[in-house]
Specification:
The chain has 436 residues and is of the alpha/beta class. It folds into two domains: 316 residues, Rossmann fold; 116 residues, no CATH class. Helix content is 53%, strand content 11%. Helix 3 runs parallel beside helix 4, helix 5 packs across helix 13 and helix 16 runs antiparallel to helix 17.
Length: 436
Amino acid sequence: MKILLTGAGGFIASVVLEKLLEQGCQVVAVARRRANIPASEAVSFIQADLQNLTRMEDWSPMLRGVDAVINCAGILRETRKGDFELVHFDAPKALAEACIQNGVERFVQISALGTELDGAFITSKHKFDDYLMRALPTAVVLRPSVVLSERGSYGGTSLLRALAALPGALFVPGDGDQKIQPILLEDLACVVAQAATGASDAQSLEQASGVAYTVGPEIVTLKEYLTLVRRWLKFPDARIVSVPLSLVGAAVWIGRRLGAGPLNDTVWGMLQRGNYAESGAYERSCEKFDYAPRSVKGYLQTSASFVQDRWHARLYLLREPIWLTLVVVWLLSGVAGFVAQPETFSPILKAMGLPEFLWRPMVWFTSAVDLALGAFLLSRRHMALAGQLMLACTLGYTLALGLLAPAVWLEPLGGLLKNLPLLCLLSVFLVVEKLR
């Protein structure tokens, strides 16, 4: 059986792909990057961005010989206004139209549990869900709650893991009584694979079709979930601190304005109103797909975490402060260079052997470079490239000054020595940025 899998580089899709390969399927993987896609003869990779695949003609060539489609593509935050509509509605709508034209009746849509009050993420997802069920009645729409994996985390689950790992205290919004109904990703992936490959005739396709709430067997409060995750990470129990909802809302607002921060409107909206299925929905989904997902509470209580889990949990919330620190350091360094007086920079440049007529142009040039790099990183476009350029410049400054004017190594208050921890900080930023 041949399956077209969109968003194949994402965390959920990666595990779904594994399940499909276990069943002997051939997979056409569509993704922006190949980072999480296995090098298997059974996988054909197509590098593409869904924002550029909004016409039926864009998809039709990919559907040759395809028996089923699984759409795992999704984003939690917009880079540009309208990205939710492009990725969650326009592109999959074009794919659904291509499926209808090419006779592909199996279409599995990974959606999300929630309501339109939870924000544009859910609104755009459910808008396509509604279209899909009208246009292709044999399609299956799966709406999970919080998805926890046995092997790692992503998106909202990374944020929850990081909150559970904060040293000294366990911070919860309000009373922490927000309800979720988590499911293990490995169990969800089995349902996705079954929905795509299990039906063998028109009657079976019709029986499997429709909207299903793929959630775990129990509803837990956010406070209970964070406590369980903290114990799973093997961190000592901590005092629970209630954070006013207004303060959380302010942090979300700031993050929206900056286009940064781990907490966004999507995650906060889903948590604030609770994220669990209506009564009886869990039982109906289990019966439809003949599956029994494991208890997430039981998993967290009986499984082991590893050092990489604890590293990730503690580093996750540091990414944005590191980014902001680097932006501020580079912008202020640039400004400081333009307003500096000759007596502050002439001793160093003289020690380097530069002629006096080059002193001021050299300071202005390096200051302009610092301002440009700070602005580049602030824009949040190609941040890994910005970090690499910063690392190269810092290393260049350090080597040039250190070799040509070695006395600066021994200046009071650190002098050139301060570049060494900055190089380490940039290296950490690049690792976190490239692997996210």
